[in-house]
Design a protein that fits this description.
By secondary structure, this protein is mostly helical. The chain has six helices and no strands. The longest helix is centred in the N-terminal third of the chain and has 54 residues.
Amino acid sequence: MVQEPVSGLFLEAMNQIGKEVISLLPKIILALIIFAIAIIIIRLLNGFFGKILKIVKLDEMVSKIAQFPFSLSSLIIIIIDVGIFLIALFMIAELFFDPKQTQLMTEIFGYAGRIFSIVGVTIFAFILFNILVSVHVIETRMRGYIVLILLILLTVMVIDLTSLSPSIKDSLARGMSTGLGIAIGVFAIWFFFHEYLDRFLDNKIGSRKKDVLNSKK
């Protein structure tokens, strides 16, 4: 008596699972096709860009300027591969998820992409700064100023990622941009007129020293 309802429920559940699998089978096959096409495209592009980067000799050109702990050519190829993989992933997600879930997934990846872009820009900026320092393009007294500018720009980008209200974000961004503009303006005045300013200050200091010596006499 008890076994019949249990077996009936089991058969009904298996029947329902079978129907769902059959209904999803075209989507699964299409997802496998998309995944296979993405792998083929990745392999083709890896070979294509690998040959181009070898012909250009990008790593050799970069190694003359600075030494990186990684291959720049490999990094470019990895970024291309990740981009193709994400495109395939979003196409597969469109098959299995409803629009709301797909939109949520898009927002998550978009936010993660913004974070990684900030990290990438920061790393690139400081690597470029170290390269300029290593080849003695930047004077010693300018290094602290450039680091300050980089930190201000980084802070502005981080503020954009926070969950603050739009009014607070706008106020902070305006304040940071005003400070950045003033800093750049002061630097421009010093950079173009520092010789005249140095002479003016030297003359002022020299005249004061003479006045002090004359007063002592």
